[in-house]
Amino acid sequence: MNKDIKHLIEDIESEVQYTSAYIGKSKLDKRVMQTMARVPREEFVPKTMQYAAYDNGPLPIGHGQTISQPYIVALMSDLLSLKPEDRVLEIGTGSGYQTAILAELCEKVFSIERIAELSRQAEERFSKLNYKNIETRVGNGYQGWQEHAPYDGIIVTAAATHIPQPLIDQLKPGGNLVIPVAMSHFSQSLMRVKKDLDGEIETQDILNVVFVPLVNDEQDKSNSVH
Ligand code: SAH
Known about the structure:
- The protein is an alpha/beta fold.
- It has helices at 3-18, 20-23, 30-36, 70-80, 97-105, 116-128, 165-169, 217-225, and strands at residues 59-62, 65-67, 87-91, 108-113, 134-138, 151-156, 171-182, 188-195, 201-209.
């Protein structure tokens, strides 16, 4: 492991310890942490930000968006409880870093991004790093991706105003949806939504977080008409 990644892993481990009262554990899943130690984050940040690629913080990636903090990427991956044979839907490809982590943890990742240029750049990174189990699409992830549903896990990496019903519908019984939900202008809560085998939904607040907003284009268009 290179020295910078080693430091990053230590920083994530200590933040997990520090937040253990909220997240209910003092260590994240071993497979998740091994994956965090393997995926080169420097490939997912702009050239001008390379020096900070292994800092445990978010970084700008252009278009007003950010690559998420590595601790949050690890935590959200852990909360999905993925098995190697699982298929996952991600909303908000962004840099593609979280997508790559998921691609190492499960069979197939479907990822939607609304900004075409970010999606294109992420695609380039996936082919450079030889990921063959990622399918991307440009569009509004609020609606999910019906064609490949249902999913064993769904992850949203932008803050929604509420839990989108299409995503609940596209989640397999027994699966987890991990999503930041805005409680007010100032506070967002990372939530885990579990669908049990009878299709019943149980939601759990995990931690206060800060994400860029999930932009629901159709909704915003209809708002501007009224
Ligand atoms: N996981 C990414 C996070 C990027 S920030 C990373 O670590 O790089 C969140 C991303 O969600 C942004 O790229 C933003 O454009 C995208 N986004 C916001 N609303 C969206 C929507 N409705 N559908 C798809 N993508 C959306």
